From TrEMBL:
One of its GO terms (biological process) is protein lipoylation. It is an enzyme of class 2 (transferase). SUPFAM superfamilies: Radical SAM enzymes. Residues 68-285 form the Radical SAM core domain. It comes from Novosphingobium flavum. [4Fe-4S] cluster 2 binds at residues 82, 86, 89. The keyword Metal-binding applies. This is Lipoyl synthase. CDD domains: Radical_SAM. Gene3D superfamilies: Aldolase class I. Belongs to the radical SAM superfamily. Lipoyl synthase family. One of its GO terms (molecular function) is 4 iron, 4 sulfur cluster binding. One of its GO terms (cellular component) is cytoplasm.
Amino acid sequence: MSDLATIPDSVPTPEASSDAPVRQRKPDWIRVKAPTSKGYNETRQLMRDLKLNTVCEEAACPNIGECWTKKHATVMILGDVCTRACAFCNVKTGMPRKVDADEPAHVAEAAAKLGLEHIVITSVDRDDLPDGGAGQFVKVIRALREMTPTTTIEILTPDFRGKMREAVEAIVAAGPDVYNHNLETVPRLYPTIRPGARYYASLRLLEEVKRHNPLIFTKSGVMLGLGEQRLEVHQVMDDMRTAGIDFLTMGQYLQPTPKHAKVIEFVTPQAFSAYGAIARAKGFLQVAASPLTRSSYHAGKDFAEMRANREAQLAKRAGK
Ligand code: SF4
């Protein structure tokens, strides 16, 4: 029997059907050490000094101890207040502040001081801005190219609802190495988990990136454990491949506070491996699938592998 055969189609736990806030006990494979290292403290101090927000802190990421020890931080631009209120996300919702004109230079300075070979930049949703914040992504990419020209750049953007085409065109023209936009979950769960977004609009955004520049790697991710069914996850993989997405990430959803969507299931590491094998068979250039996988977890190492995988694939096609 394959590992996938052990994944139930859907497992509503007693916690899932109760309205009372319940502290769910995490399985052993989710537990992580408290962050205490010197590298962690230095990364934290630099982010404070440069007034930069990180998704690592805002999303209460379980990998922060490991990543910051290695000086890998994912910078969150355009403030720390989001105009959406997704049921899985810990970032504050409200009316964001003015865009910080110094932010692009500060991001580049952080990349230089941390000595980053690869940087991941994300942002809150800025539905209040006429360009959705695309212009700030462009400025950050340009500042990085100027100050740290050898650093490879990965961006993880919002869906730019209502202004997607212009936003994608501008950002792709700035030339990031990887364009990531997460589908987050299966389409059936969008109304409750990602109510402000549309599944097919997100897929179209990633198609649009490839249409403008097929050489930019595209990446997308889903969280598991929200009540999705196995065949729905397979369908999402097929949809992603149809949109030409190169890299799939899959990780366990964790409830940031009792007010957020409940964890319906803790997916086992074996089941993640099985999903990963299916994704590779479906043709993704790169796949990261484990309970603690996050969009930016090991992003630099995975980027290098993905690039090597593409080169090997092209050489094979050319019969070398
Ligand atoms: S996985 Fe990503 S968000 Fe989490 S700590 Fe690492 S870099 Fe930050």
